[in-house]
Amino acid sequence: MRGFLKESTRAKVRFALGPFSLPKPQARLVGLGCILLAGVLLGSMGQAAGAQKPYLAHFIAQYLEQHCSSGFAAAVGASFSSAMLMQMLVVFLGLSCAGTPFLICVPLLRGISIGCIGAFLYGSMGMRGLLANLILFWIPEVMQAVFLLILVNAALDTSWPLFRACFSSQEFDGIRAKADACLRCFVYTSLGMLAAALLEGALSAIFAPVLLP
């Protein structure tokens, strides 16, 4: 009886999936970029939230102080370590059959963090904070966001076939190749993250003492 119910559940999932497939990679990148921008918009609303919840503003202030007032190495370390945590999370989800819905949320979370920092700088320092955000963070953050979207796109290419393989009698011979491509993409995008972190560290070492005294 238990085996019959299990097979019945699998049949229902196969029927629900039907011929559905992910959009093409280019279309997925556009969609992920829109999700990222939506996250930036939501994070920008954190200015009001920070005014109502002082611990949020305190957390962002501590992050900025540790990130920009401790020299080049500290800024690079903070930027690269946070980026690599997100990278490893994306790879873990990409190699999981249940990772697809969570992968879609990753650009949203990244956008929220970008928006929160920008809103805090503008809310606390006005136009000077906006200028500091543009010079110190926007170029490296945009670089890291692009590399993250590329990796999320590759991870979706792996996670979705794994999900379908769990509920389908069809064998997907290309899963191993997709997983290999995802891991290669992880290596390449991690190098890009390191380059962005080095740039952010250089900008922080040069401009942070002037823009964020």
Features:
86% helix; mainly alpha; disordered N terminus; 213 residues
Topology:
Layout: H1 2-17, H2 25-44, H3 46-52, H4 54-68, H5 72-94, H6 100-125, H7 127-166, H8 175-211
Structural class: mainly alpha
Quaternary structure type: single chain
How helical, in percent, are the residues?
Answer: over 70%
Taking pLDDT < 50 over at least 5 consecutive residues as the criterion, the unreliable ranges are 1-18
Distance between the termini: 70 Å
Taken from the alpha-carbon principal axes, the silhouette is elongated
Biggest pleated-sheet summary: none
Kindly provide the radius of gyration, computed on alpha-carbon positions and rounded to a whole number of angstroms: 20 Å
Order of helices and strands: HHHHHHHH
Number of strands: 0
Average of per-residue pLDDT values: 80
Structural account:
By secondary structure, the chain is mainly α. Helix content is about 85%, strand content about 0%. It is built from eight helices and no strands. It has helices at about 1-15, 25-45, 45-50, 55-70, 70-95, 100-125, 125-165, 175-210. Helix 3 crosses helix 4 (about 55-70), helix 5 runs antiparallel to helix 6 (about 100-125) and helix 7 runs antiparallel to helix 8 (about 175-210). It is elongated. The chain starts with a helix and ends with a helix. Residues about 1-20 have low confidence and may be disordered.
